[in-house]
Specification:
Blueprint lengths: L14 E5 L5 H7 L7 E6 L2 E6 L1 H10 L4 E4 L1 H9 L6 H12 L3 E5 L4 H9 L3 E5 L12 H27 L1 E3 L2 E4 L2 E2 L2 H13 L3 E2 L4 E4 L19 E6 L2 E2 L8 E6 L5 H20 L6 H14 L5 E3 L2 E3 L6 E3 L6 E5 L11 E4 L2 E4 L3 E4 L2 E5 L4 E3 L10
Parallel strand pairs: 3-4, 5-6
Antiparallel strand pairs: 1-2, 2-3, 7-8, 8-9, 10-13, 11-12, 12-14, 15-16, 17-18, 19-22, 20-21, 22-23
Helix pairs in contact: 6-7, 8-9
Length: about 375
């Protein structure tokens, strides 16, 4: 059983997480144990403990980076003998009472049922907002390498997608590939298959053409258009390391309109501006304000048209790691950027009937600037 330095949310507090590490990044970060059943993680008195059922006991002992693995079976047997309900919280209650622990710090998203039952038994629960483990926001060298590896696969997938679009035949207003209409669904499947063969899962890549791209998180569907902007946003997760990658390119197969070319230049300049401002100690909300100011000065208004928001309608970027969206944020909320953090930089402009453009790279914050993990070219017309 490997041991790691305590990563307690705040020294002196007793930390509790109940969940599955496949979906709970904080739990995986704390234990490095990948599990799809619910386990209980406790940090108390400088000791990291994982309570698991017998099915996971042996594997946890070999893989989890904690100080102690505890089987829940003896506690379950005691509860049955006393004709008490066998629940995660009743098992945990027995374990905590043996150690005199009555106060716990839990994530803000802690399951409500568990919280209610623990409070009924007299425990004091303190909720902590994200980041639950502040150390997660600054990436270790091995974490940065893991994100870089995912980004390498991501870039290869983007190259595949752009190559298919470039090879497509323009017939009227639509694109054809292999004699068939090229659809968003077909191109998305090619991206997903490519990444899965490289041990990465891309569940929801965005392939959104024309006005579909004006809704930033629309996945895209149907035939892909010629001579209109197509947003390709790919964000895979490595199945080996669980770290994410994220990048976006906007292309036009054919000839872009002058309006779309202007949007593209403005977004590219805004991204370069953000790159120039990001460094250790930078304030994320001020970076976002400068990007927003550039767009406004270029005449890109934020308006509501036919019930839709248009212009620059999202944040400039976000942290990335074991979650696709994590701290810090580069948006309206105040935040301070620190060396070693990994963030996306993804300004965008969205105008139905004109075009939609988003460009996104992932960068590592350094003392004096940022290092871009993406090298894939930014070209509008292909």
């Amino acid at each position: 059983m490997a041991q790691r330095e305590s990563i307690r949310a705040d020294h002196g507090e007793n930390v509790l997480i109940i969940g599955e590490s496949e979906t709970d990044a904080d739990l995986y970060y704390a234990t490095r144990f990948l599990v799809s059943v619910t386990v209980m993680y406790l940090e108390a008195e400088g000791k990291k403990t994982l309570l698991v059922n017998d099915l996971e006991y042996g594997r946890a002992g070999a893989e989890a980076e904690v100080d102690e693995i505890v089987s829940t079976t003896p506690y379950e047997d005691r509860l049955r003998a006393a004709d008490e309900p066998v629940r995660l919280t009743t098992v945990l209650d027995l374990y905590l009472r043996e150690r005199g622990i009555r106060s716990l710090t839990v994530p803000a998203g802690f399951p409500a049922a568990h919280a209610e039952r623990l409070r009924e038994r007299g425990y004091v629960l303190k909720l902590r907002d994200d980041p639950f483990f502040p150390a997660r926001t600054v990436k270790r060298p091995d974490e940065i390498r893991a994100i870089e590896d995912t980004q390498l696969h991501n870039e290869a997938a983007m190259d595949l997608a752009v190559s298919i679009l470039r090879e497509s035949e323009i017939r009227g207003d639509l694109l054809y590939h292999g004699g068939k209409v090229l659809t968003a669904e077909r191109l998305r499947l090619e991206i997903q298959r490519f990444l899965l063969e490289r041990d990465c899962l891309a569940a929801q890549p965005i392939v959104a053409g024309g006005d579909q791209g004006a809704d930033p998180h629309t996945r895209g569907s149907g035939p892909l258009p010629a001579h209109k902007t197509i947003i390709l946003d790919i964000f895979p997760r490595s199945l080996a390391t669980l770290y994410w990658g994220d990048m976006t390119r906007t292309v036009v197969r054919g000839k872009a309109t002058p309006e779309a070319r202007k949007l593209y230049r403005d977004v590219l300049d805004a991204q370069d501006l953000a790159f120039s401002l990001l460094k250790d100690g930078a304030e994320g909300h001020k970076v976002h304000e400068e990007v927003s100011r550039l767009f406004k000065d270029r005449g890109n208004a934020n308006e509501e048209v036919a019930g839709k928001k248009t212009g620059f309608i999202h944040s400039t970027g976000h942290g990335i790691g074991l979650d696709i969206h994590e701290s810090p944020r580069i948006g309206k909320i105040e935040s301070r950027i620190a060396e070693g953090q990994v963030v996306t930089v993804e300004p965008g402009l969205y105008y139905p009937g004109v075009g939609a453009v988003r460009l996104e790279d992932t960068v590592v914050i350094t003392k004096d600037g940022c290092r871009n993990l993406n090298v894939f070219p930014k070209v509008l017309e292909i």
